[in-house]
Amino acid sequence: MSLIYQHPALTRPDSFRVLRLLPAKHLSDPLCCQLTEEFLLPDAEDGKVVPYEALSYVWGAKTPEDAYISCGEGSLGLQITRNCEAALRRLRLPSDERVLWVDAICIDQTDAGRLERNEQVAMMGPIYSLAADVLVWLGEGNKSTAVVFQYLAIYMLVVLDSDDIKQALMQEFDSTMHMNEAIRKAFGEYILSNIWFDRVWTIQEQVLARSATVVCGGDSIPWPVLDKFVEYYTMMRFESKHEHDGKKRTITKESFKATRRSFLVGSARNTSWNHTPAEDILWSATQHDATDPRDKIYGVYALLQHFGYDYPPPDYSKDVAQIYAETVVTTMQQQRSLQILELLYSSKPAFGLPSWVPDWTRGVSFGQVSLPPSVFARDMGERRATGGSRIEGEEVPQCLPGNRLRLRGQPFDVVKLCSAPFPIYEAATMGWKARERWLDADPDARFSYFQYRASVLETYHAWTSMLREHLRSLPDGQDIAPHIRVFGQLHLAPFRMAGRSPEAVEGLKVFAEGPGKIFEIFIILMMTIDLSIESGEGIGDNEAPPTDPILRAFDMSEPRWRDLWSDVYGRLAMRMEVLDFPDDMVSTIAEVKKIQYYLQDSLAGAVCFITREGCYGTVRSSAKVGDHVVLFEGADSPMVIQPVSGAGSVSQFRLVGPAHVEGIMLGEAWLDDPACLETYELV
Fold it and tell me: Cα separation of 454 and 456, whole Å?
């Protein structure tokens, strides 16, 4: 292609271009198109926008081998990625032109077109919602995806039929589905794991579509059929009673991602529902990828508009920190709430972000919130530390020069004792079978994993040592049982903060509140055990390996395994052997040994602290002794903040993050008195 096409300037604020894809008889024929200007507010007598379809796809990285599409006479063309080229070749008709909107072609992507890009990104909501159909392109596919789409075509007959026939067909379909492992695997591996589901731009493109079709190579299926099948697939992937082939199923992160989109689609199209909170939309951006970090916000701008939120329009001349800070403050001001701060997890934000601005690029990692904030708040209703307060009057949060945020809050307490963060091990998120295969295949990985398991016990021992230090400071004769009980309850707080389901929380409560109160046993055990290596003690070279199935993986033929056994596991196991538990609690000991699995899930990344007034809390960041615990007006959780040296007339702090503090999560400490509020400045 000898000459590069230059986009003519658009003539009106409501202008946008469409691509008229010219027909071709063969898939390999050169791509040719014409770009024409259209209007969202047409002047034509019928008042209708020209019918067009919008393409939703993943650009893919640009390479020297990228393709070109001819855009008129004189060999004028535009460079397009190979994925875009493949989509256009498949969508091209044999004898008629096809009118499409394709962002990479219809918007001037050059530096000279930056202003146009800002304006067109702001118009993406109506562009996608007015399209006759949104074409979701998943790539060329393969033989496996072709089989999946054939299967989906059968499923479409099931879901679209009458109720009586549907029930009969569904029974037959269930039987087939359970037997066909290849279909299940291909659907998860090639459809739900497709990169299209990972990109932030595709959220609004699909949610705002009035009609959508999924296209993969030469196959296609209406989006509602895929949506229904995802729901069915997700149900089948749960561990359930339906074990027709004897295999337990676990839900995948891909099916979770797809079902979260279904939630947003339902919110967008069901006018009887309350509008979706802005925090939920912005949270969804943390779950998806974007090449340009600014698109973590701009990629859902149209969705925010759709639900009636007024955010600053896209402006690619701004830096990431300014865009993210404006987004946080605008959300606080419009929602009269600080719930957006619940997204805050990164202790080392990038792009020069202030401490109070979430880093949308980091996503949500293991142990953090995996539910939209509104669903999380609804299901985990124990977080009303300020009594459900909202920001009142004219005292709305303000972003001051230098990205300083001024808020009002009620001081609560100061951190007296503080632990190290609980260890995080990403491989701990693997399913049981996947983890077993991985550990069996790699001896070094197995040892690394058990080192992590040892660090879990060591860290928790440090936590309980901190508790022991606090208990020693209590007046003589004071009953310590209530303190141990509250400390045990604290374990449930990070579990709730991790966004687990209420059912899962109830399961964990068995350890804290069930027969024997296992957490209390474990706390006492860890407070009294010595996990350090002492001279002359430990496991001998010829000693038999442990009988506990969790510990049997220790390879006693290697010194490193013997040392690890002597250091932590052996001392814990031996301590259990010599403890004089009552007979009715013997069965409890096996459960105690399993607690570390729950700890590594629920406490990953958490810091435990005790305040000067003896309150127990956790926060998912690096807290320090001397940090302040504050109840900010409009926040659901207490916030831990860190004093900044050299502050001016108004005290400045760094926001550590939302916390759980036992005994004040239902508003017990909230005075609801404006006179008790102080001004804080976060940097």
Answer: 5
What lies within 8 Å, CB to CB, of 273 at 6+ separation is 266, 267
**DSSP for 254-270?**
HHHHHHHHHHHHHHHH-
Instruction: Give 18's strand partners.
Output: 36
- Output the CA torsion 670→673→674→678 (10° steps): -50
Cβ 344 vs Cβ 475: under 8 Å: no
Among 475, 113, 90, 552, smallest CA distance to 316 is for: 113
Residue 128, SS3 per DSSP? helix
Tokens of 107: 């918007």
Nearest to 362 by CA among 298, 429, 300, 293: 293
At 345-377, the pLDDT tens digits run 555 667 889 999 988 887 654 344 455 566 555
Which helix (DSSP H) or strand (DSSP E) does residue 607 occupy?
strand 607-611
Comparing CA positions, the residue from 136, 285, 258 lying closest to residue 193 is 258
31-49: pLDDT as tens digits: 999 999 999 887 655 567 8
| pLDDT greater than 90 at residue 174 | no
Q: Please state, as a whole number, how many other Cβ atoms lie within 10 Å of the Cβ of residue 448.
A: 14
What pLDDT, on the 0 to 100 scale, is given for residue 558?
Answer: 64
- DSSP symbol at 357: S
Other residues' Cβ atoms within 10 Å of the Cβ of residue 129? 17
Distance CA 141, CA 369 (A): 33
Count CB-CB contacts under 10 A for residue 601: 18
Q: How many residues does the chain have?
A: 683
Which residues are within 8 A (CB) of 172 and not within 5 positions of it... i.e. 6 or more apart?
none
Q: Determine the 3-state secondary structure of 141 from DSSP.
A: coil
Pull the structure tokens for residue 429: 């998120």
Is 284 exposed, middle or buried, given 0-12, 13-18 or 19+ CB atoms closer than 10 A? buried
Contacts (Cβ under 8 Å, ≥6 apart) of 103: 55, 120, 124
Distances (CA, A) of 290 to 300, 329, 433: 11, 22, 32
CA–CA gap between residue 286 and residue 297 (Å, rounded): 9
Q: Where are the alpha helices (DSSP H) in 92-180?
A: 103-106, 114-122, 124-130, 143-160, 163-179
Residue with tokens 């599409």: 69
3-state secondary structure of 582: coil
Phi, psi at 681, each rounded to 5°:
-120, 120
